[in-house]
UniProtKB/TrEMBL annotation:
Family annotation (Pfam families): Methyltrans_SAM, PUA_3
PROSITE patterns (UniProt xref): PUA (PS50890)
Positions of the PUA domain: 1-84
Keywords recorded for this protein, A-Z: Cytoplasm, Methyltransferase, RNA-binding, rRNA processing, S-adenosyl-L-methionine, Transferase
Name of the molecule in the record: 23S rRNA (Cytosine(1962)-C(5))-methyltransferase RlmI
Cellular location(s): Cytoplasm
Matching CDD domains: AdoMet_MTases, PUA_RlmI, RlmI_M_like
Domain of life: Bacteria
SMART domains: PUA
UniProt record similarity statement: Belongs to the methyltransferase superfamily. RlmI family.
Organism of origin: Paraphotobacterium marinum
BP-aspect Gene Ontology terms: methylation; rRNA processing
Length: 393
């Protein structure tokens, strides 16, 4: 692959992506998943990557070392490096669930590896890693020989790579159970690694759940897009007066109820509402209902930059509604997991939402993803989760 003049600058800064509009020529009969060498317009070697024929990110980089082989030892080396990082911060993680590989941020593009107790859950999201799947899985078995390995490559993003959606157990241990229990800062949580969202749970919100627990003492809490009630569980731990969990999925709410029972939490002061959050907030507004604390942790509102305006409207609408429901002196915890949503724009949207709702906000904390979801210095796109803790008047 040969780049256009000037398009080599990002690779010289060790950024791991090559976009389709940066390419001058692709030599030879190359198909998705093929290993390729990348050169600048002067035919100077730059990097080694894999090709993706159907994505705007036409290549992702494996190595900037021309002598490095992309084989099982390569993957084992990357896994060990990532494992050592997590070991160095394990006292901060304070959980038996963590992200081992955060894709490009751990130098393994398009690859997610999450650990839930003795289960390894893997997502392969790109044609390049799909081609090396056997090497990756063999390396995982070498590094974590006593763990079950389960694949959750059923994310819709694989369709953009023209890859089939697939999931299933890859190891041969007979005692595998698709549901497991993790602990997080003293709270027990059921995780369905076969049918749950993503790889089973949102471990990137670990620190933020703990932060929320410090603001809810004797307060009424509305936990929107609650999934299996992670934030709700920590609201209970923080001695909330009453907690309302809202989610559109009955399966998620059933697991949420199990989570409260698992921790011996009194469910008499907890509601589980199966409803669309936008609809529920409008109903609460019309009823004049108020809460002390509202948590907004919606799914991703945008998959491409073309959807930015629509996503901005969605965030503004839901935050305006939530702010209208918060009592004076209450708190809003609001998040965006859309990596393409700029942090500055997200903050502006929340500020505009407050104006429209006739509220005054003070941002008291800026929130991000958990420490086991690192942000590589040469890959700022790895910073995807953004949140604001707001005092509301």
């Amino acid at each position: 692959m040969i780049l256009k003049k000037g398009r080599e600058k990002s690779l010289l800064r060790k950024h791991p992506w090559v976009f389709s509009n940066s390419i001058s020529d692709v030599l030879g009969d190359v198909v998705s998943g093929d290993l390729i060498d990348i050169y600048d317009f002067k035919n100077q070697w730059l990097a080694k990557g894999s090709y993706s024929s159907s994505s705007q990110i036409r290549s992702r980089i494996w190595s900037f070392d021309s002598s490095e082989k992309i084989d099982q030892q390569f993957f084992l080396k990357k896994l060990k490096k990532a494992f050592n990082l997590r070991e160095s911060i394990k006292t901060n993680i304070n959980s038996n669930a963590y992200r081992l590989i955060a894709a490009e941020s751990d130098d393994l593009p398009g690859t997610i590896v999450d650990i839930y107790d003795n289960n390894v859950v893997v997502q392969l999201l790109w044609a390049g890693i799909e081609r090396f799947r056997k090497d990756l899985f063999a390396s995982l078995q070498t590094l974590l020989p006593n763990h079950h390995i389960y694949e959750r490559s059923d994310a819709n993003i694989r369709k953009k790579e023209e890859l089939p959606l697939t999931k299933g157990l890859l190891s041969q241990h007979s005692d595998f159970n698709s549901k497991c229990v993790i602990t997080e800062n003293g709270v027990k949580i059921n995780v369905d690694i076969e049918n749950g969202h993503k790889t089973g749970f949102y471990i990137d919100q670990r620190e933020n759940r703990n932060i929320v627990s410090k603001y809810v003492d004797n307060k009424t809490v509305l936990n929107c897009f609650s999934y299996t009630a992670g934030f709700g569980l920590f609201a209970f731990k923080g001695n909330a007066k009453h907690i309302t969990n809202i989610d559109v999925s009955n399966l998620a709410l059933d697991l949420a109820k199990e989570n409260f029972i698992l921790n011996n939490y009194n469910t008499k002061k907890v509601d589980f509402i199966n409803k669309d959050v936008f609809k529920a907030l409008r109903e609460y507004y019309n009823e004049g209902k108020k809460f002390d604390v509202i948590i907004l942790d919606p799914p991703k509102f945008m998959e491409s930059k073309k959807q930015l305006n629509d996503a901005a409207r969605g965030y503004k609408d839901i935050n305006r509604l939530a702010l209208s429901l918060i009592k004076p002196g209450g708190f809003l915890f609001t998040f965006s997991c859309s990596g393409l949503m700029p942090t500055e724009l997200f903050q502006k949207i929340i500020s505009d939402s407050a104006l429209d709702a006739g509220k005054e906000i003070k941002i008291i904390e800026k929130l991000s993803q958990s420490q086991d979801h690192p942000i590589s210095g040469n890959f700022p796109e790895g910073s995807y989760l953004k949140g604001l803790a707001c005092y509301v008047n």
